[in-house]
Amino acid sequence: MNALKGLPVRQAEIASKKFVVGFDGFIDTIARPVRQAASQDAPAEFFETIREFGEYLVSCAEKSCSIELKVEAKQLGGNLPLFSRGAGKLGLDVTCIGMLGEDGAIDRTFQEMPCRLYSFAPAGQSTNLEFRDGKVFLAPDIALPGFPWELVLGATGGKAAEVFRNADLTALLNWSELAFAQELWEAAYEEAFAGEPCDKSRFAFFDLCDCSRKTQDEIEAVLRLIGRFAKQRTAILSVNENEAHVISSRVLDGSREPASIAKLLRARYGIDEVLIHTIRESFLATCRGTTLHPTLFVEQPKLSTGAGDHFNAAFCFGTVMGFSDGDRILFANRYANFYISQGYSPSLQEVVHHTVSKSYGLE
């Protein structure tokens, strides 16, 4: 991966790249569901896969059940904090506008983030059930105490539009889990981008998250909005396999093939780039064609919550640093692999050293 070799002498350039990220923020309780309680003779056994856990729940239909949880951590969560922490650890200049604490004060859970932080609402609370093959998020609805964009303006001292306008990359995340996200994304576009000169050297990155609860009309509306962003910036949509299938079944032709879905999204909505990542491989469709790379699957993950956010953060890093399409996907895979296997967000130096020392067939 030649793109990594020149990075140590590009630190000043990396630090000059400005990201602005909105708009969520959660405090996560990370837990593993217990299948067999610990005894004097044996440790607790956990549900290893989502399927195993689901089958147990189905077996309890019309009977009720009780699930013991082994709480492993209470930590920052949500797409904005996890994405931003990864991007900040890579050395980028990151500004976050999100749900990070009461009355504009930053909750101590988020103070570890190497970012500039603005809070317009209290953090949400979620429980994340970890399994070997994925995770299940449990979170309540979030209600805001006022009009979303007005709260954002208040939190940023009226500078929100300027911050978005001046960013090299704008990342709007977690549309599906925030009832007010469409309104807020629309306002960000109208206040910061509409009527401005087109600058395709800058980027707008979108992660809808699990949109299975959204209607056809809602999905159609957000995709058309992303197409409007594409008139001002290079617009990038990132989805996982489940999200791609939901979108295809609701607003496209029902295709299950990632390459076909990506091509249709670009053509129908004018989105510049579509990234689809699965547990087996990652696809990137751009005007230059479609790039595919196998995913680095981790058999025994230390932490899977946030893996997609770290993948996206590293992909965006490669984007603003001018990596090729193939190297953007490869670097995103390397960074996510480190996070999943080691259980924390690495610095750029750590992931470069890890990549080279493990070889991975790159050298």
Instruction: Walk across the major sheet and give the strand order.
Output: 6-5-1-9-10-11-12-13-14
From the 3D structure, determine the CATH topology: UDP-N-acetylmuramoyl-L-alanine:D-glutamate ligase
Q: Give the end-to-end Cα distance, rounded to a whole number of Å.
A: 7 Å
Give a count of the beta strands, DSSP E runs of length 2 or more: 14
Largest sheet: 9 strands, mixed
Percent strand: 15-25%
Protein architecture, described:
- With 363 residues, the protein is α/β, with parallel strands linked by helices.
- The chain has one domain: UDP-N-acetylmuramoyl-L-alanine:D-glutamate ligase (3-Layer(aba) Sandwich).
- It has 13 helices and 14 strands.
- Helix 8 links the parallel strand 10 and strand 11.
- Helix 6 packs across helix 7 and helix 7 runs parallel beside helix 8.
List the helices and strands and how they pair.
Elements: H1 2-5, H2 11-16, E1 18-22, E2 26-36, E3 45-46, H3 50-59, E4 69-77, H4 79-89, E5 93-98, E6 116-119, E7 124-131, E8 134-138, H5 148-155, H6 160-166, E9 169-173, H7 181-193, E10 203-207, H8 216-229, E11 234-240, H9 241-251, H10 258-269, E12 273-277, E13 281-286, E14 289-294, H11 307-320, H12 325-342, H13 348-358
Parallel strand pairs: 1-5, 1-9, 2-7, 5-6, 9-10, 10-11, 11-12
Antiparallel strand pairs: 2-3, 2-4, 7-8, 12-13, 13-14
Helix pairs in contact: 4-11, 6-7, 7-8, 11-12
Offer a concise description of the structure.
This protein is of the alpha/beta class. The chain has helices spanning 2-5, 11-16, 50-59, 79-89, 148-155, 160-166, 181-193, 216-229, 241-251, 258-269, 307-320, 325-342, 348-358; strands spanning 18-22, 26-36, 45-46, 69-77, 93-98, 116-119, 124-131, 134-138, 169-173, 203-207, 234-240, 273-277, 281-286, 289-294.
